[in-house]
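Usage

Read records sequentially. Each one opens with the input sequence:
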Amino acid sequence: MIVHRALPADLDQLVPLFDRYRQFYGKPSDPGRARRFLGERLRREESVVFLAVEGEATIGFVQLYPGFSSIGTSRTFVLNDLYVEADHRRTGAGQALVEAATAYARRVGAAGLSLVTGVDNTTAQALYEGLGWTRETAFVEYGLALASGDGYLEDVHPSGAEGRAVG
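and closes with the structure output:
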C-alpha cells in the first residue's frame, strides 16, 4: 500500500470515496457536490488530503483542515475525515493514513492534531488511542446551525460526530 498527498489531479480517485463517506453518514449520493467541494479545498489549499492506494485501487483517504491555537499561539490541524473502503478495513490502511497525516503535521511545525468522533465509534477510538491520541475530557463541544433547510449542522456534526473514522 502507498499513501500519498492528493493533488487536484487526484479528484477522479478521491470523489467516489468521499461520496461513499458522506453516504455512510446518511447523505444522498452526489458526486458532483463532492467534486466541487473537494476541488475547491484542494485548489485553495484549504485542506490537506492523503490517499491510500493498493495496487490500482484507491482504498481510503484522510483529510486535515488547518487551524490555529490562540492559547498555544501555534498552528494546528483538525483530522476531520478518515475513510477506508469496507473491504480494506482492519488491514492497516486507516493507521497508515493517520500516520501520514501526523507526519505531515509534524513536518510543517504544527503543535498538534485534534478530532471528534462518535461516542459509539469504538473502532476509531481504538485506532486513535493505539496511535497515542488521548481522549479530551477538559472541554465540552457545542455546535450552532447558521443556515436552515439544508442540514448544515448535521453536515458538521452528523449524529454528534465530526472527524469520523470508519477505517
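Summary fields computed downstream for this record:
- Residues 157-167 have pLDDT under 50 and may be disordered.
- The CA atoms of residues 22 and 28 lie 8 Å apart.
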